[in-house]
Amino acid sequence: MNNGKKIGKPRLLMLGCGDVGMRMLPLVRARFRVIVVTSKPERCAELRAAGAIPLVADLDRPATLARLARLAQVIVHLAPPQSSGETDRRTRNLAAILPDRANLVYISTTGVYGDCGGASFDETRPVRPANPRARRRVDAEQVLRAWARRSGSRLAILRVPGIYARDRLPLERLQKGTPALSAADDVYTNHIHADDLAAIAVRALDRARPLRVYHAVDDSDMKMGDYFDAVARCFGLPPPPRLPRTELQQQVTPMMLSFMSESRRLRNDRLRNELGVRLRYPHVGALLETLP
Description:
7-stranded parallel beta sheet, Rossmann fold, two-stranded parallel ribbon, alpha/beta
């Protein structure tokens, strides 16, 4: 006799389930009934095979989101903003139907800081987004903070740098011989392995402090060109040619140039001390040294 109490696993709602989301599923499906929102019906079979319950809805179409309301009290928001505009309309549509007193982890980006001139800093540094892509992320963070305060919910924001994995290395770029910045103009860049990011997001569900920002970054202290050189050596490829910024900007796309215009080194003390994370790949070399 259950006295009217619900039996079974609690529900976890996942919005967006690309590479990192798929890596999260094995870490949470034993504890939760995982409901994954996808806008692509053709992905439903893949998601079911991975142990999730697919739900077709579209963050760009608010009318499709009504059934998400009060569906779960534990939420992971992995969906990126739309590709244009100064605000994240998708997160705004989501916030309009989120339940009260929920527990939400949002995957943001380290791009919200803009160029920091190679400075090393923690999560207390003010944001200064330098392009619409980063401003959309700042908007999403602000919208979710307002929702969390209003609804009494717990929100953790993970600011994420460049994600790498065995199948997420810049091999195509190296094979094409795309140039990198000269040493004098090079920028510091930050990294996290996709498996570590998945584990960090799960840990944040359990241990994050309310309305807390965490740098989901590893211990790598590298400039971008050195990263490309390390990957090239690992795979026996020629290192990229190095050019001064004035010449490079004529050969790469505006988006690529924007990544090469921001230099920062993010500290991860909160990740270790508050979330208790022990990285499987504490630096890029920890992966590269395992590869043939």
